Amino acid sequence: MPLAEQIRMGIGVAIERGVLTPGARLPSWQDLAAQLGVARGTVRSAYEKLSAAQLIVASRAAGTHVAERPRAVVRSEQPPDPGSFMGMYQEMTQGPAIFQMGVPAEETFPATLLARIRSHAVRAEARASPIYPDPRGEFELRREIAAYLAVARGIECSPSQVIITGGYSSGLGLALRVLGLEGQRAWIEEPGFPFTRRGLELGRLSLAAIPVDASGINVDHGLRHAPDARLVVVTPGQQAPLGVVLSLERRLRLLDWAAQDSVWVIEDDYLSELQMKGRAAPALASLDRGGRVIHIGSFSKTISPTLRLGFLVAPISLVSRFSEVAACLAPPPGPSVQLAIAEFMRGGHYLRHLRRTKRAYSVKRDALLECLQPQVKAAGSIATAGLAVLLRLPNGVPDTSIAREALALGMAPVPLSTWYARPASGRSGLLLGIATAPNKHLARSCERLCAIIERLSLPRRRARVALPDEW
Q1: What is the secondary structure of 92-160 as a DSSP string?
Q2: Edge to edge, what strands does the sheet with 429-433 contain?
Q3: If 0-12 CB within 10 Å is exposed, 13-18 middle and 19+ buried, where does residue 25 land?
Q4: What SS3 state is found at 284?
């Protein structure tokens, strides 16, 4: 096939499939010819054919652009398979929506201040020498994180132990690569974060779901049923999704077992910076004397998930290994965002932001509870769970169906049943994010949600009433 025809077909197919959208600018035929290493006349010939087919429009003043086309011709992105993990992932992360979890409130975000700091960091990055950055992350940010952890989380670590990551998921993947536990058994919380569960499955670990009660993960249950585990993943500060704190007795029991049997513990420090009531529990890593805890945190819930910025504290024995894997397989985000957050922390803005955010969330939580209490009645029970309100429903009520119907009305409650590894044993319920609860028309949103719950609960109630007659 002639080179000009190959170029024409490649661009034409991209236009037909919607990859190149109407109005998208194409490179000049001189620039593209230099990039492809072909004669300029070859690219010019391909462009002339595309123009004749009315796929592109060329202008001396405006350059070459993709021509406007009927909307139906532009194909949308292939949706995930129904019932797949990516389908659930998109349902849980799309938004913004009312009651959505995992997203900070927009009104508490210091947008102006952070934009100014980031603009300075971007200019500094542009002026810097074009060399590869430290794969462990910028030293300024690692130093600020180590200082913050010492003050606020009770963790004694040096900046060399801190590895900058692309958020919690990136930190989990980095840890799994370093530990190399493929084929081994791992404890997960039941219920627990679905993304963590799927990540461990992709890491080829065998999972043991350990129940969570009012004192956190039941360590004794795990030792009875899965004593051969080589990894434990826990959220001890505020358990996801129930919000309970791992008791001191169980923390010490877990750490003693980990030290004696050479078990690794990954601490997901979920929402510990935003403890809403009582004294914030110290990090599990602050009690670790055997060097078995890998502490993972992020700025997604406190600042913004768009940063894709997190950190990991490696035990001293694994610092070199974490550095090697980060350098070769999991580099951190670009320096500018790291330097911006470092300045944000160094100026005292981060702790000030956390204080204001917790105060705002407390007001939102109280207002949401006040609206829900008179409407729920006998349909379920209400409890706070970290930065969410947990609305428990009677077993059998389809919480996933309720969540999907609510999404069509701009609300995104998370079904509790999806957090269970064994859905048959899971309780039905809805998790309502506090941060994204509306300040206005909150009562109206609660009414619409409760109306959906009442309607989808009716078939179950009727069946329960008719049961004696059927027997």
Answers
A1: HH--S-BT-SS---GGG--HHHHHHHHHHHHHHHHHS-S-PPPTT--HHHHHHHHHHIIIII-----GG
A2: 381-385, 388-392, 429-433, 414-415
A3: exposed
A4: helix
Q: Which residues contact 62 (CB under 8 A, 6 or more apart)?
A: none
Give the sign of the dihedral formed by CA 402, CA 405, CA 411, CA 412. positive
| Residue from 348, 302, 342, 353 nearest 121 by CA | 342
Residue 353, SS3 per DSSP: helix
Residues 268/102, Cβ–Cβ less than 8 Å: no
Helix (H, G, I), strand (E, B) or coil at 455: helix
Please say whether the dihedral angle defined by the alpha carbons of residues 274, 330, 177 and 420, taken in this order, is positive or negative. positive
Cα 288 to Cα 284: distance, rounded to the nearest angstrom: 7
Which element (helix H / strand E) includes 164?
strand 162-165
What is the distance between the alpha carbons of residues 138 and 351, in angstroms, rounded to a whole number?
20
Q: Which residues pair with 13 in a beta bridge?
A: none
This prediction has a pTM of 0.86
Averaged confidence pLDDT in the chain? 88
**Token reading at 52:** 């004749």
Answer yes or no: are the C-beta atoms of 364 and 435 closer than 8 Å.
Answer: yes
Alpha-carbon torsion, ordered 336, 338, 343, 345, to 10 deg: 160
Q: What is the pLDDT of residues 90-116, one digit of tens each?
A: 666 676 789 999 888 888 888 899 999
DSSP letters for 43-99 = HHHHHHHHHHTTSEEEETTTEEEEPP--GGGSPPPPPPPTTSHHHHHHHHH--S-BT
Model confidence over 364-412: pLDDT tens digits? Answer: 999 999 998 887 764 568 888 889 999 988 877 889 999 999 998 999 9
* Whole-angstrom distance, CA of residue 157 vs CA of residue 318: 13
| pLDDT tens for each residue of 272-314 | 888 877 677 889 999 999 999 999 999 999 999 989 999 999 9
pLDDT tens digits, one per residue of 413-444 = 999 999 999 865 558 899 999 999 998 889 99
* Residue 54 in this model has a pLDDT that exceeds 70: yes
> HSE on the CB side for 392, CA within 13 Å?
11
